[in-house]
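Hi L., both proteins are below.
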Amino acid sequence: MRISTKGRYALSMMVDLAQHQEDGYVSLRDVAERQGISKKYLEQIVLIFNRSGVLKTSRGFQGGYRLARSPGEYTVGEILRITENGLSPVPCVDENAEVCERSAVCPTLPIWQGLNRVINDYLDGITLQNLLEQYQASNEAVSR
């Protein structure tokens, strides 16, 4: 399994919005500048997030984007599943996969099921709030 550029940028964008949630609605231009990501690329990611309801949008002069929920309510797994269309290491263990005709006799199926469980449990155990706290702690350690 490999996380695409879209997934990595989406996670960076969500962390940035979490860091600036007190600023109200944040423009994509500002996020793009801070994160070093193309604004056009972020616009594509925002379209995906708007369909899933994870962002609030405001149009106009002071418009922009903000998280629809608190940072502690978003997991890395949720964000990556939205942008990556799932996190399964192989298609046969995907959440919406059709049952494979060989699943009853497949000697490797337990490996893929276990790996899928580990990946999802790990990524669902990390919230945007956790990332903010880790980032803040590492910045404080560096400044000492």
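That was the first. Here is the second:
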Amino acid sequence: MEAIILLALSGGLMDAYSYLERGGVFANAQTGNILLLGVNIAEGHFDLALKYFCPIIAFALGIAIGEVIRIKRPGSFHWRQYVIVIEIIFMLIVGVIPLSFNLLANSLLSFACGLQVESFRKLHGLPIATTMCIGNLRSGVHALVDHLALKKKDDFHKCLLYFGVILFFIIGAIIGNYLIDILGIKAIWASIVILAAAFLLMFINHDKMQS
């Protein structure tokens, strides 16, 4: 559970960073990018459409690579730890890319988010997302209604889990907003600290996640 909380913190921070510091593009929320892609195409702003198109493709590629890593399961570490290492490397690179190369920075961020969303999909057998909130919101409300209607304590615990992950995503966005004012493009390096902590925690409790 602790690793999922850290990943949700990082997810919120990455989205806030890409949107606020890197030109209004979402690292995680590809629905928003797809919408803005379509709007800009409709208005004939093809140069602006490109800044949304590339992160979408990078996100999809990250999902694909995450699945390849899961299938191959390389080395002696848990395979998800390799995903986190790749994310950390990408965060290091993004933190030194100037604002004039936002397209590259956002594409790298979206690739890392695609890796994460594909690799961390369940906790205690429940579907979970650490880089977006819509699925967690649906599942949390569903569990809450079931708890109120059926009086099952397990549904209440599920509700707390989903809304807890959303809360930490929001906290990550707040932290990101605050750090951008202080560190500028280097604010993304805060995600490295968070991801490194998640990496270390997985030595303790990775068996609690779906293999």
